[in-house]
């Protein structure tokens, strides 16, 4: 049961971090006075730096939950 919880927690961390990035990038795009026609958010170097920790943590939780011991 603990393994299932850890695995879903890892998935949730990854999805929330990517979803938050998507919403925050869209929020900035919505207040652009010249408009914005893109659908996908921009993947910049700063975004990669910020998302590395939560995605790494989520992947670590998934791997630990799936490991046989």
Automatic annotation (TrEMBL):
<keyword id="KW-0472">Membrane</keyword>
<feature type="transmembrane region" description="Helical">
    <location>
        <begin position="5"/>
        <end position="24"/>
    </location>
</feature>
<protein>
    <submittedName>
        <fullName>Uncharacterized protein</fullName>
    </submittedName>
</protein>
<keyword id="KW-0812">Transmembrane</keyword>
<feature type="transmembrane region" description="Helical">
    <location>
        <begin position="47"/>
        <end position="65"/>
    </location>
</feature>
<keyword id="KW-1133">Transmembrane helix</keyword>
């Amino acid at each position: 049961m603990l393994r299932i919880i850890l695995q879903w927690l890892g998935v949730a961390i990854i999805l929330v971090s990517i979803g938050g990035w998507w919403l925050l990038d869209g929020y900035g795009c919505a207040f652009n006075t010249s408009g914005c026609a893109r659908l996908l958010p921009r993947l910049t170097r700063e975004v990669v730096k910020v998302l590395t920790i939560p995605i790494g943590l989520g992947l670590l939780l998934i791997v630990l939950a799936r490991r046989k011991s």
